[in-house]
Structure formats: C-alpha cells, structure tokens
Design brief:
Largest interface: A-B, 52 and 52 residues
Radius of gyration of chain A: 20 Å
Shape of chain A: globular
Oligomer: homotetramer
Strand content of chain A: under 5%
Chain lengths: 222, 222, 222, 222
Amino acid sequence: MQILRPTTERTRAIDDSEKAARRDTLLNAAKTLFLEQQPSLPSVQAIASRAGLAKGTVYLYFSTKEEIFISLLGQMYEDLLKQMNEVAEKAADPVEEMVESIVAYTHENPHFLPLASMASTVLEQNISDQHLMAFKAMLFSGTIRLGQSISQTVGGQTDAEACAVLLVHTHAHMLGLWQMQQMPPRIREALSRNNMGLLAPEFNQALRTGLKALWGGTPSPP
Amino acid sequence: MQILRPTTERTRAIDDSEKAARRDTLLNAAKTLFLEQQPSLPSVQAIASRAGLAKGTVYLYFSTKEEIFISLLGQMYEDLLKQMNEVAEKAADPVEEMVESIVAYTHENPHFLPLASMASTVLEQNISDQHLMAFKAMLFSGTIRLGQSISQTVGGQTDAEACAVLLVHTHAHMLGLWQMQQMPPRIREALSRNNMGLLAPEFNQALRTGLKALWGGTPSPP
Amino acid sequence: MQILRPTTERTRAIDDSEKAARRDTLLNAAKTLFLEQQPSLPSVQAIASRAGLAKGTVYLYFSTKEEIFISLLGQMYEDLLKQMNEVAEKAADPVEEMVESIVAYTHENPHFLPLASMASTVLEQNISDQHLMAFKAMLFSGTIRLGQSISQTVGGQTDAEACAVLLVHTHAHMLGLWQMQQMPPRIREALSRNNMGLLAPEFNQALRTGLKALWGGTPSPP
Amino acid sequence: MQILRPTTERTRAIDDSEKAARRDTLLNAAKTLFLEQQPSLPSVQAIASRAGLAKGTVYLYFSTKEEIFISLLGQMYEDLLKQMNEVAEKAADPVEEMVESIVAYTHENPHFLPLASMASTVLEQNISDQHLMAFKAMLFSGTIRLGQSISQTVGGQTDAEACAVLLVHTHAHMLGLWQMQQMPPRIREALSRNNMGLLAPEFNQALRTGLKALWGGTPSPP
DNA sequence: CATGAATGAGATTTCATTCAT
DNA sequence: TATGAATGAAATCTCATTCAT
C-alpha cells in the first residue's frame, strides 16, 4: 500500500497545493537568480530553466516577469511585518527591537531591499492595476496592524494612527538609506580610501540612528 | 579680428565653449524627454533627434545613455546643495528652511526625484567607475560644505560632522518618501477611495514631518 | 423505457449521436468565433471555452485546429452544392438562378468565402492527407452531380462534363472575386474616395457579370 | 589611381542607389526562402541570415515581415502589367497573347501566384494602411493603363473601362484557378489516381479556357 | 471520455552601441 | 567632428499540441 509519494515526482500540479508548490519553485528560482545577477531582473527563460520548467509554464502562474518579483517582494513584506508584529507585542523597547528585527530580516533576505528599491521604478511599471492594488492593500493592512501593536505596547500616549505614520516614515528611511549605501564593492572601497565613507553609511548602524531620531518622541514605557 | 559667422550655422563644435553648448543642448533634450515619458529613460535616438543631432554624435559627448542622466542628476544635486547652503547661512531656523528649500527645488525640477530614485538601480549600473566617483565626490564635498554651514548657523552644539550625517539621513528620507508616494494617478485615486491614503503620503508635508523628527535634537539658536 | 436524464447534465458523450452533437457544438463555437475575429482563426482555447469544453477535449474530436475549419467549410460546400442542385433541376435559366443561389448562400453564411479563401493557403496546410482527400472527394462528387443536373436541364447540347468544368471555373471565379473585394472597411472607403472603386468590385454584381460571361456559350432552353 | 571599386565591398549603404540595392538583396533573400518553404512565410531571422545581414537591419528597410512580401508582390504585379501592356499594344489577338503572357510570367516567377493568393488573407493583415494603399494604387493605375492599351488595340467597340473591368475579372479568375489546383504533389497524384483530376485543373490550360470565355464577347479585329 | 497543466518553438521588435564614411 | 547604417543581443508572450491524471 503506497502512502508516501513524494510530490516532487508528479510532473503536473493538479490540485491547489501542488500549484502553490510550483509557484514557490518559480519564486525561489527567481530569487536565486536575482541574487546572482543583481541588480537586473533575470529573464523569464532563465527563471524557467532554473526551476526545471518551460518558459510557457511560467506564464501559467504569472502574467508578467514583474509580477513574479512583486509577488516575491510582497511575501517578504508580509513576513517582515509579521515578524515586527511579534516583536512589537512583547518588546520592552519596541523601537530598538523593531530596528533589530529589520536589520536581521534584511540580513537573512539579502534580496529584500534590492527588490524593494526597484518597486516604484521598475516592478510597478509592468503589472496590472489589480495586482498592484493587492500588493498595496497587503502593505496597508500590515502597516495598520503593526501600528496598533506598537501603540498598545508603548502605552496610550502615541495612538495607533501616529504609529502607522511613523511606520511609513520608517519604511521610507530604510529604503533611502539602503539605496545610498548600495554600490559596487570597488566603488565602496574607493570612497573609503578617499575618506568619503560618509556617502556609504553602514546600513545597520545608520538605520538605528535614523529610526531612533524618527521615533524619538515616542516615550518608552517606564 | 573675428570674422562674423553665425554660430548657429556651424555644424561642428570646434572650441570648448561650443562643445559645452552642444553638451547642454543634449542634456536639455534628455531632460525634456524624460519629463514627457517618465519613468522610463528616453532612447538615445530620441534625445539626439530632439537636440537636432545624429545618434552617433551623442556618443562624442557621453559614453553611455546613463551618463547623460547622471550628469543631469549631478547638476541638480549641485544646484540644490548650493541653494541649501545659501539658505543655511542666513536662516533663522535652518531645518525649517532647508525643508522649504528642498520642497521648492523638487517643485521647480520635477525630474529631480524621479532621476534620483533611479540612481542606484538604473543609472549607476551603466556608467564608468570614473564618472561614478566624480558624481560621488561632488555629492560628498557638497554635503560636507553644507554640513559646515549648518553647524555654524545653529551654533557649536552640533558639530559639522554630525550635521553631515544628518544630511545623509535627510537625503535618504527624501528619496524614500518620494518613492513611496510615487505611483500612477489612477492607483493613487484608488488608494484614496479605499481609505489607504496612508500609503501615498503627500510628499511636502511628509518631508516636513520627517525632517523635523530627524533634526529635532538639533537645538535652534536661542 | 427511457429513464429521463437531462442530456445537458451528462459530461460524457457515450453514444454516437452524443458525439456528433458535441462535434457540432465545437463547430458552432468555431464558426461564431471566426465571424467575430475574421480573418484570423480563433485559438483552440477560445473555441473550447465557447463550447463549454476543455481544450484537450477539442482534440478528441478533431486532430488539428485547421481540421475544424475544413470540416466547417466542407459542410458549407455540401449545403451550397445541394441547394444549387435543387435550383438547377427546376430552373428556367440555370445560370441566372445558380448565381442567385450562390449570392444568397454567401449572404446567409458570411463565413463561407472567408474560409474558402483560406483553404489552399492556410487550412489545407495542417490537415491529414486523409481528411483533405475526403474533403476533395466530397467536392468532386458534388460538382459532378451538379454538372449532370445542369446538363440535363439545359438540354443535350452541353454535356455533363463540360458543365462540371464550368463549375470549376465558377468556383475559381467566385473565390478570386471575393478575395479582390475583401479589405478592411477603411481601405475600401479610401479606394472609393480616390475613384479606385474598380479594385473593390461589389461582389454580387461582379459575380453575375463574370458567371454570365463564363456560361455565356451555354444556350438556355428555348 | 583607384577607379573601380566594387560596390559589393562597401559594408554600408550610404547613398540611395546602395540602399535600393540592399533592399533588393533582402527581397531576393525573401523570395528564395519563400520558394523553398512555401506556403509559409520565412522568418525575418532567416531572411536576414540569407541576405548576409543582421535581423535588425531588415527593420531598417521594412517595418514588418509582411511588408517585405507585399513589396515583392507589388514588384511582380508591376512587371506583369508592364509585360502585358507591351503585348497588348502590338498583339494581333490580345486575349490569346495576354493569356500566354500570364502563363509565361507565372512560369518564370513561381512565387507570384502563391504570394498573390496570400495577399488578402495574410499579407494585407499586417501592413500599414499607407503601404496597402500604395500597393492598391499601383495595381489600379496599371490596370487602367492596360485596359486602355487593350481597348485601343482591339478597336473602338470595347471601351477602356470595360476592358479594365474585364481585367479585374481576369485577375480574379487567375487567382481562383491557381488556388484550386494548388495542392501537395501527393494529393494531386491521389486525385489523379481516383479520376478526380477535375479538381486539380492544369493551370495553363484552364486559364486559357476561362479567359477566352470571359473575353469572348470582345471581337478580335478582322 | 474529459481535463487542463505543461511544453517549447517561434515571432516580432527595440535599442544601445559601434564604426565606416 | 559628425553622421546614421549596421549590429545583434535581449526579451516578452502566444498558442497548437501532448499527455498525465
């Protein structure tokens, strides 16, 4: 009696879970290739080959290449927001821990900020309004929810909405800082040699500094 | 004795001023076209035609298309830094006035932030190390200088270096905020209709808020 | 005693009449879609969807897309030949009435001539020899039969074979005329505006003229 | 002193005659390939390779693949009309000689009728209105001119306009006949084996028969 | 019988850059 | 210096057909 049949042996994704798995395979292939050839998006052919599928198959799961990467990015935002939420709910010093959460996340997901930086200039240019709105809606609800968590944790003095606004600024700050320090290693070294390291701020440290300033008005619980 | 020959009839730029003029013609054409078809960069053919020149001629003045736009962007950063410097030197409330200076500049130069947002992901990917370093060096010295001005204006409690660091954060914040609110008008409207306006913060106002928080620790002169 | 089970709920065509019905459903879907998007053949996916079936099911009934349309075309030729036969058997002026029969048929079946025009260049390129021969055989026997009818009606001076040859010419003439006048409406209007209407002859009238000339030698019965 | 420099050594078509030559090279490559793989149009890549040029170069001379073939077809119609004109001007029996002219032309240019048969269903579907109108205008003026020649030759009883109309019918008949006899050799043989040769009329002979009937009313000069 | 996931060949077109003239 | 012809690498996306389920 056969019970265990490895799903990987199926050549067709028939039910929804198999389809989701195949979608994930494609997303992973896209992620891997993007990491290899940053900052340009890999071609659909390359993604398909890496996933062991045909080019046409990719278009069964995503309707444009950019949709693949928005999807990847959306997943990451969701993960990050969830992780920050968990932190916010039990943190003694939410700001400090949020920063650490972001820093850790970007470290574990090195394609997150490169992709996030392409969102407005590249990715959002070739996806349907519907997908874009879904992405934004997810971002919105996650931000609101996180704002509420933080507000509750730090006490009543900062309301949820103010927290949400601060989160938007946090996001902007993170994006901008990352782009500033983003450059080919040889350029970074050259800047460093010429004492212009100011222009290539170390991301983690700069983020801590920046966010503390931004959230500074928010009193930590005594 | 100079024989009068109308410069407009000359088809070749012989001396340096003529060359500079031709370069400017190209930069202006590039700027105009970019404004028309944001957020994608216009083609070299389009830039050349708009400038009344042939495609090959563009490559006598710039070695890649991206170099044109980095050049345009560099000019704008220079202008903005200079303008902020003037403000910083005589401002009563430097932070307030710096924000207004940025807001005014971005208003007068609507291609500034779109281009700045493409710097790390698009423009810097296809220019020579040399040009990139020149761009960074200009940015560096401008930042240092502005930091000094601000430091002097606000008094000795905040040193020049700290001001430079704050300027880097200011830059990051501006970039990130702009990217967050950047989206097709119909998406903006849809967000607004769904009470998700939080995700499309009004740039000027958000920048004021953000920068005040960032610079907040800096005491204004009594 | 037949148990009532609504045929529409059956998802499988078991007996031959059900299979024929399903085939007809597909043919109708193909016809409708072709009329909508002339002059290109609709996709198999579109035909299947319109018929309420899956794409793979189409291939249970036809082995290529072109076979669907050859089938449709064959049906129409059969109908037309039959209709002309009826006319020929009792007509006072067979040529005159044949023309009217064709004109009426093409009017009632607007997809007939567009498809017939694609026969040699598109449809016949992707069907099996067997199907092509069946199509030709049907055409042949129909032509022969009609030739005999006409021959009998008009009297012994024109033999059946000569009539069949004239029918082949009739067919050719009809096809060619239709293709000449076939063009996008805006082009037709432009031709008309420039007094080049000669190139877009009105089909019905031109067919009458042409066929009268072709059959002219055939004496009508006194 | 170098005088003769073979134009074929130039790698760039600078002046108009060189450009025309290059266009011809492409048209010839297209013609050759079409003859080899009739009835499908060769790919642009194949045409470019055959011409010893790059794919992009093709698009400097033609804006779509279909434009190449309409151009080829237009050239052929022009040649044929001119040739028929010469014949008509001095022929004793214009109809007879016109038929021979067509037969000879189609024999020497075996890609003529295959392409002409694709005109309305394939070629005209992907070219600009402008090119299509130019094609039609050429056809129109050639037809008018030929009609006048014929009218003059045969004497005043058939006016030029009637001749033009007959030419349109001649064209239609030729197209239709060719399509009827057009089929893969093995099918032709099978028809023949089954005594269905009627359906694959020998083009030259059938054309003679058809055109004589069409032009029959036109009295030859005594 | 029916399904629809998977395939993968193919086709068009753009455009930055080079380099012969 | 200036030109613009030529290049050719991409890149996206469609769709007829197959075949595992």
